[in-house]
Each structure stands twice: as C-alpha cells, then as structure tokens.
Amino acid sequence: MKAGIDLIHFATSDFYLGLDLYAKEKQQDVNKYLIGIGQEKMSIAPPDEDIVTLSAKAAEPILQQIDRQKITAVLFATESGVDQSKSAGAFVHSLLMLPNRCRVIELKHACYAGAAALQMAVNMVKVNPKEQVLVIAADIARYDLDTSGEATQGCGAVAMLIRENPRILEIEQGSGYYTEDVMDFWRPNHRETALVDGKYSTKVYLNSLKQAWIHFTEETGRTFADIDQFCYHIPFTKMAEKAHKQLIKINQVEQAESLTLKQIRPSQIYNRVIGNSYSASLFVGFCSLLDHTNGLDHQRISFFSYGSGCVAEFFTGIIQPGYQAQLMKSNHQQQIEKRQALSYSQYLTFYHQTEPNLQNIVFPEYHAGPYRLTGIQDHKRCYQKTQG
Length: 388
Hints:
By secondary structure, this protein is α+β, with helices and mostly antiparallel strands. The chain has eleven helices and 18 strands. The chain has helices at 19-26, 31-34, 51-63, 88-95, 113-127, 198-220, 237-250, 257-274, 281-292, 329-337, 344-353, and strands at residues 3-11, 15-18, 41-43, 73-77, 103-107, 133-141, 154-164, 169-171, 176-179, 185-186, 195-196, 229-232, 300-307, 311-319, 340-341, 361-362, 371-377, 380-385. Helix 7 (237-250) packs antiparallel against helix 8 (257-274) and helix 8 packs across helix 9 (281-292).
C-alpha cells in the first residue's frame, strides 16, 4: 500500500531582516553572508507570533481542501516548545477546530523531529488505512546576539497531510539512520537560546550523512544514480552544498558542477530568504523543490534529516504523477513577497520581547493573522483566530 504526503504547505512570519542591513550594522562585509553561508534574509517572528500560530497558518489551507473531521492524529515536531508539559499541538488542535477523536503528541530531537513525525505517520497509515495524519514541523530559530549563529536565524512551519494513495509523494520503504551522543548544539532548560559549536556541528553533520547513507544503501540496495533530486536539512543554505559534495565524494561520482547544482539548487531557494527553521527546514526545502522544478513525475527524491545531539536519517520518496495540481506555490511565494522589512532597531525590539517571563501580559497587534498569540494570563497562553 502507498502512503506518504498528500498535501503540503508552509508558513513563515510577516517580517524579515535583510542581511545586507545586518552586515552594515555589524560593520562586516555582506558577502560573508550572501556568499559565505548563502543567506539573504531571515524571517523574524514578532512577539504575537509563535510556533502555534505559524503552524495553524501552515495547516489551514490544507484543511480547507479536505474534511477536517477525518483527521485522526496531529504529530507536532519542534524544538521551540511553548510548554514543558502540554503539547503545542493541543493549542493548534483547538485553533483549527479538529475533531476530539484525534490523538495529539509533540516530538523533539533538535531538527530531526519532523522526519521522525513523518515516518511515524506513514507507518500509522500503513497499519490502518483509515488514518489521516496531520504532521506539523515548526520552529523559531534564535541565537544570542553577536554570535556566529545570529545571522542564520529564521522561522517557519510546514504542515503535511499523510494518508494512503498520496497525491504528491509516496515514502519508500527502507531508510538509513545514525545516532551518536555529541554536544554540537543544545539548549538547557534555563536558556531561551541554544549553545552551538558551529564548526564541530558541521563536522558531525557530514559524518552523520556518511553513516546514514551507508546504512541506507545496505537496507535498500539503492545507489546515488537511482536518485534524481536531493533535499537536505539546511541550517544555512551553503550547508546543502557541503553535504551534497560530501555524498558525491563518498560515492566516488564524477559529474559536472552544473549537474551537482541542478540536483540541489531548487531546494535551497526558500531557505535562502527565510533562514533556519530547525525541524521545518528540510520540508521547506522540499516545498522549494516542488515549486521551482517542473516535470518531477515519477522521480525519486532523497531526504537527509539531521538533528544535533545527534540523530540523522536518509530516506527516499517517489513523486506522484499529477502532483503539480496539489501544490500551493502562489501562496508560498506571496507570503515571502508580502513580508515587511524590519529596521535593526525593530529587530532588536522583537528579539527582546519574545517569550517574556511574565505571568500576565497582553501583546500589541504586530501582524495581521490569521492567528495570533494575544497574551499570557495566569501563566496560560491565549490565542485568537483573527480571520475567517
């Protein structure tokens, strides 16, 4: 039985900070960002936007096309949790008016959790074809000011409907995976921002790719030549190029640079102007591939998910014929184009107001919706649907 992604849609915030402005403020060469890490902009969430509102915004266009009362589970992947106990998915479940006969759970392992949720959902459908699972991967990437990670910040949420006979992507059986206890990136409970050893993390990422790939080939018998397009977790856009060249080297493939770029460039376009979205990043890249490449019918797409700490997985899927009729390309591109540019002082205002340690607060209305975090009352997060 086929199972996989039937519909997919992503959302990002209404604001961005240009790295040209950022570089000027820091008195640095802008090419350090445009060329060095391959980033142009980073989406910045205002105080009244969080992973819950981003996720509801990502999922609603999917639910408008189906009977939402048939959703049987919400698997919510994030490392930007809003509560140490309650799943962020429970808030989303309420905002989206999903049925009570529905399971909701939050998954976490750095940037890997979205892939874990997808695989879990696929297996749920294969066990019971009646299942229609909403997988959501959402994060707001934040680092300390004036650190190397600051320029890679971003935010986004990707919602995917997983069911039998999917219209976009069938997930294939067999994957390669790898786990190792390392401290390349972590965020203790007492911190709002992560700690990261960037150079070490890149090294671990590439080793994890190698190990997951070797396992993948052993499990499936597939080769580099069997794959048409490659999607990677993208903490910064240039990382996908490093990863793909590593995979080419591992497989001792000789091919033109133009072909190498063709295999990954379409998946990088959105990330370049959104920034890192942690668990959502790999699937923002997949949306970018779908929206910027024609004629993918029947092609095999590979996915490499990496979560610091670390867990990695390499798996593949087959694009279904007629997939383009299900895409929401114009919605994705309009979101990006309509974002408002922030001044550096506005960026700092947003940065310092995010996640206040206050019992009671009401947030000004920074963005138009369709969902807002209106405030915190008696330690309880308050959300509002502002449109529809």
